[in-house]
Design goal:
single chain; about 550 residues; alpha/beta; six-stranded mixed beta sheet; six-stranded antiparallel beta sheet; 21 strands
Amino acid sequence: MEHDALIAQAQAWLAEDPDPDTRDELARLIDSGDHAELAARFAGTLQFGTAGLRGELGAGPLRMNRSVVIRAAAGLAAYLKKQGTPHGNDTAGLVVIGYDARHKSAAFAEDTAAVMTGAGLRAAVLPRPLPTPVLAFAIRHLGAVAGVEVTASHNPPRDNGYKVYLGDGSQIVPPADAEIAAEIEAITSLTTVPRPTTGWETLDDTVLDAYLARTDAVLSPASPRTARTVYTAMHGVGKDVLLAAFARAGFPTPDLVTEQADPDPDFPTVAFPNPEEPGAMDLAFAKARETDPDLVIANDPDADRCAAAVKDGGDWRMLRGDEVGALLAAHLVRRGATGTFAESIVSSSLLGRIAEKAGLPYEETLTGFKWIARVDGLRYGYEEALGYCVDPDGVRDKDGITAALLLTELASELKSDGRTLLDLLDDLAVEHGLHATDQLSVRVKDLGLIAAAMRRLREQPPTELAGLRITRAEDLNEGTATLPPTDGLRYTLDGARVVVRPSGTEPKLKCYLEVVVPVATKQALPETRTKATSLLTTLKRDLSAAAGI
C-alpha cells in the first residue's frame, strides 16, 4: 500500500477508535511514520472463522481491539436478526456473554453487550471472569439464541479472542461462520453501530450455581472420593469453580500451586500458559514432590481443557491427552454409559477400539469441539489437545472442570483397589494394543512457511515413513465420505497413522503421529514401549524431512 494511502487509512481508523489505549498507540505509529508496522496492522482484517476471532492485542484491523470486537458483535447481531431472531421487544432473543481475565476481556464483553442491546436483542453478561464451560452451559440453561466467550484460551499473554456459540450451545460451524463474516464485512463505520451505555443485564451467581449443581450428574452417586490432588489454574479463571465443584463432590481439597492460582493476564511464571508446553507444569510438579498426591490436575487459563500428571517411578510426568481420553472412556464404559463415543481425526484410534469392544457407536470428526459436539447421540467426546466433553447434556463443549471431576473419581476408584491410572493404561494396552502418540508442532512467524510445507507434501507425497509403507494417502481438502473438506493430509501406514494440518488458532503446523504395536503380555510392555518410542522418533524425523520443516 502506498504510504499516503496507508496513513489515510490509519487516520480514518483512529478517528473512530473508542479505546484511548489503542488510540494513543496508533497515533504514535502515525506520527513516527513507521510504514512497516502500520502495514502489518492494515494489510487486511482479522478473519472471522469457525474459531471466531483470535489475535494479538493492538490497534488496527489486523489486531484484537474494541473496534474489531464492536464490528464482530454487530455482524453477529445482524446475522441473528436475519435468522428470524425476535428483537426490539420484551421477547427479544437473548445473547449471553462470558469472558476470561485477559487484558481487555471485560471491555470486549461490555462492548458486545452494548451492541446486542443497541440492535434490539437482549444481552446478559456473566458476573465476573469465569471458565468458558460456564458460558457454554449458560446458553442452553437460559434459552439464549447465541453466546459469546471473550478468551484466547491458552495463547500467549499478548493475545485475545472472541468465540461464538449458537443457541444449541455448540460453537459455530460453516456456513454460519461465513455468513457472520459477511455481515461484519458489511459494516463500513462504527458510527452506524448503536451502542447504548445501559440496558443489558449483569447476571448473578444463579447460573454458576446451576452449573455446579449439574456437575452432580458427572459422578456415580456411591463412588469413592478419596484421591488427593495438586491443582494449578495456570494463572487463569478455573480455581474458584474447580474448588467449589470438588467441595460439592466431597473430594479432598486440592493443594494449590499458589504462584499460578489467581488470574493474571501476564502469565508471569510460564512462557506459554498451556499445560502441554515445556516448563508450564514445573511448579505443579514441585508441589507434587512436596505433598505426594495421587494426581496432578491443571486447567488452561479459561478452564475448558484439563491436563493430568501421575507419578511414574520416582517422579511425575504428564499424561498425554490421548491417554486421559482413553482412561475416561474406559471409566464410562465400566459405569455402563450408553450413546456415541466421538473424537477428532487427530486423536488416538484407541477410542474406537474401546467403543467397538463395548458395542457402542463411534464417530470421527474434523478437529475441534465445534464438530465433536454436533455428533448425534453424543455421550462422550474428546480431543488429544486436552479437551474432554464428559457431560454433553450439560455442556456441549470441552469442559476442564467436569473432566477433572471424572478423572479424580476414576483415580479414587483405582486407589481403593490398590491400583493407579498407569495400571489401567497397561490393561488397555494389553487388551487393545499399545497406542502410542506424539506430535510434531512447528511454530512460525511467517505463515507462508506453513503453506509451503503443505504444498510440498501435496506435490511430493512421501511413499513411506519410518520404514513403514504408506497404504493410503488422503488429501482432506477434498473431503471424505464422512468428513467435510478441510486443509489437511492423512496418511495410513502399516501400524501407524499421520495427520498434518495448519493450526486453526495459532501460527503452527501440527503433525499428529500414532503407532499401534500389539502387546502379548503385560510383561512385554516395557519392550513394546521402547519399540513404539523408536518408531515415533523416526516417524517425526522422516515427516519433518518430507515437509521441509
